[in-house]
Design a protein that fits this description.
- Helix content is 69%, strand content 0%.
- By secondary structure, the chain is mainly α.
- Helix 1 (2-9) crosses helix 2 (13-23) and helix 3 runs antiparallel to helix 4.
- It is elongated, with a radius of gyration of 25 Å.
- The mean pLDDT is 89.
Length: 97
């Protein structure tokens, strides 16, 4: 490690980059918080329309809107799995009785 630090001090940019990468965590891009009306109880299509409307109105940046829509898609998949699980439970209960 001492050799790398000495090379960095001598002006070796590769060594300097290596030293800095160990001293400072990488900077991660973070989006600013956004606020707009979104009712998570609405059907998925309506939620996506609300996000697209917020993007079109300039309330939400397009990249953030895309992330929100992806999250809505994940929510949709969770809801589908929960509904399927409930249907299976109901069907199994009918077979037992």
């Amino acid at each position: 490690m001492r050799v790398v630090i000495d090379k960095a001090l001598e002006g070796d940019m590769t060594a300097a980059g290596l030293v800095l990468s160990r001293l400072m965590p990488p900077v991660k891009a973070q989006s600013e918080p956004v606020q707009f009306n979104l009712d998570p109880e609405l059907p998925i299509g309506k939620q996506i329309e609300a996000v697209l409307g917020a993007v079109a109105a300039g309330e939400v940046p397009p990249d953030v809107g895309q992330q929100i829509i992806a999250m809505i898609g994940t929510l949709s998949n969770v809801r589908k799995n929960e509904e399927l699980e409930q249907r299976i439970i109901q069907l199994e209960a009918k077979e037992i009785t």
